[in-house]
Amino acid sequence: MNQTHTRAIEALQPFIHLANSNSATSPRFIANIITNATSHPHTYVFAELLETPTIQSLQSPDIPPEYQGYLKLLEIFAWGTWQDYQATPNLPKLSTEQTQKLRLLSLLSLATTIKPLTYSALQSALSLPDTGDLESLVTSAIYSSLLTARLSPSSNPPTVNVTSVAPLRDVQPQSLGKMITQLTEWEARCGEVAQDLEAEIEAVKANAAIRATKENSYKEMYDARVKARKQEAGAPGAGGGGSGVGSAAPAARRGPLGIRRGARGLFGGNKREADDIEQDDGFFDAGDGMEIDEGAGSGSGRGNGSRTKRVLGGRRG
Predict the structure, then answer these.
(1) In angstroms, rounded to a whole number, what is the distance separating the alpha carbons of residues 144 and 256?
(2) d(CA 272, CA 197)
(3) SS3 letters across 27-69
(4) What is the pLDDT of residue 35?
(5) Which residue stretches does the UniProt record annotate as biased composition, category Basic residues (predicted)?
(6) Which residues contact residue 48 at a Cβ distance below 8 angstroms, ignoring those fewer than 6 apart?
(7) What torsion do the CA atoms of 42, 53, 73, 99 make, to the nearest 10 degrees?
(8) Do residues 265 and 273 make contact, with C-beta atoms less than 8 angstroms apart?
(9) Interval 14-23: pLDDT, tens
């Protein structure tokens, strides 16, 4: 419970005891209780005092007319405003303390109903023609912990920026039915919102489960493919040698003239010519074919000083 509300209830207790005492029998005594309770600087709630049989006895038609208005006055202090007091005839005249108290209580109600809370609106509702009186009233409410607010006289229009209001106004009995209806509707809306949230949560869980299933399936497929690739790579003969591009061929033997020995068909000739290439190591010139100059006296028996040429791998002329 708010500390300000607790202090207000404690401040009202002596007046409740007086109303419940045996001496509270005359209308004048009851009227004095109401006057003193509403004038006390720390009393801001009056529902408990209103509920006492002594205070309710003022509704009797036997009560003198000058005291009949005190019950209505206490009701205005409990849940009414300054405007209600001015609009109700035959009410007792207020003292300075009661006037200040009723304006403070009215300020609490106005702070929760008027948006924005401008100077002009407050001055009209509280019958305060002077701006200084309004600022003094608001400052008093702030120091009494009735509300948390900040004055903004330089804003356009000048306003009172209220951030919190103490729960010090009583609830009018006639408004309980309306409040119960509003609370019931609010409870129904909260139930609908809760159901919608639960449905959303279930949908999110279902989607998450579907995603998890797909991810597990993809992972199993990936693992199976990786395993199959590894098995293929480790199979016998897989990726081995052969006559492909990557296989290493033995180095060819080459003769003194750089001609690879044993390479038959290298120059497009027949087997005999290839054998001649393997056997002859003489000087040759590359022409239309490949010629081997055997030189003079090579043992071919074709004459003295003559040179014999043999054509290998080309056309013979």
Answers:
(1) 121
(2) 97
(3) HHHHHHHHHHHHHCCCCCCCHHHHCCHHHHHHHCCCCCHHHHH
(4) 97
(5) 307-317
(6) 9, 12, 16
(7) -20
(8) no
(9) 999 999 998 7
Distance CA 39, CA 98 (A): 5
Which amino acid is located at 192 in the chain? Answer: E
Instruction: Look up tokens 């002009």; give the residue.
Output: 120
Residue 85, CA distances (Å) to 18, 75, 90 in order: 26, 10, 10
How many residues are recorded in the chain?
317
H helices of the chain, in order, are: 3-20, 27-39, 47-50, 53-56, 65-79, 82-87, 96-111, 119-126, 131-143, 176-234, 271-279
Tokens in use for 168?
């010090």
pLDDT (tens digit per residue) in 260-271: 444 444 444 454
Whole-number Å distance between alpha carbons of 184 and 186 = 5
pTM: 0.60
Q: Distance (Å, rounded) from C-alpha 250 to C-alpha 25?
A: 135
Secondary structure (3-state) at 187: helix
Other beta carbons less than 10 A from residue 27's beta carbon: 17
Q: From residue 178, how far is each of 77, 109, 205, 248, 315 by CA, in Å?
A: 21, 18, 41, 100, 124
